[in-house]
């Protein structure tokens, strides 16, 4: 006798955050898979899988996944919204300020 295994998928509300497993199920329901998103975003399917599983960070791929499952980006990947944007420009400003201090100190010594 073969036992049937029933998978119960919780009905999500608009405020729920999606887990990696729920992302995969939602993609399948919408008719998409990691390979299709990979092709659309010019990355490998493994990269898409790792972004969906929240192992890698890629805002571009994460936005593509959110669009494919037709859910708000911040509900699928809230960790992107929680982080304060600190990019190259902010690091550059700090480095330039530090360099200016070093130059001023060096000029004061001479």
Secondary-structure element string: HHHHHHH
Note the quaternary state here.
single chain
CATH superfamily of the domain at 20-84: lambda repressor-like DNA-binding domains
What structural class is derived from the secondary structure elements?
mainly alpha
Count of DSSP strands: 0
In percent, how much strand structure appears in the residues?
under 5%
Number of helices: 7
The dominant shape is elongated
Q: CATH class of the domain at 20-84, please? A: Mainly Alpha
Nearest-angstrom radius of gyration? Answer: 22 Å
Calculate the mean pLDDT score and round it: 83
The biggest beta sheet reads: none
Distance between the termini: 90 Å
What is the fold named in CATH at topology level of the domain at 20-84? 434 Repressor (Amino-terminal Domain)
Secondary-structure arrangement, i.e. CATH architecture of the domain at 20-84: Orthogonal Bundle
Helix content: 55-70%
Q: Which spans have pLDDT < 50 for at least 5 consecutive residues? A: none
Question: What report would you give on this structure?
Answer:
The mean pLDDT is 83. The chain is 62% helix and 0% strand. By secondary structure, the protein is an all-alpha fold. It contains seven helices and no strands. Helix 2 packs across helix 4. It has a domain at 20-84: 434 Repressor (Amino-terminal Domain) (Orthogonal Bundle).
Jot down its keywords:
mainly alpha; 434 Repressor (Amino-terminal Domain); 7 helices; 0% strand
């Amino acid at each position: 006798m073969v036992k049937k295994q029933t998978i119960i998928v919780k009905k999500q509300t608009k405020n729920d955050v999606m887990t990696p497993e729920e992302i995969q199920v939602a993609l399948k329901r919408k008719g998409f898979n990691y390979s299709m998103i990979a092709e659309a975003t010019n990355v490998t399917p493994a990269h898409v899988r790792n972004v969906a599983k929240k192992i890698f960070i890629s805002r571009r791929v994460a936005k593509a996944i959110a669009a494919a499952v037709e859910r708000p980006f911040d509900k699928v990947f809230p960790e992107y919204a929680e982080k304060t944007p600190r990019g190259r420009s902010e690091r550059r400003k700090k480095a330039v300020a530090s360099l200016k201090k070093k130059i001023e100190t060096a000029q004061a010594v001479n």
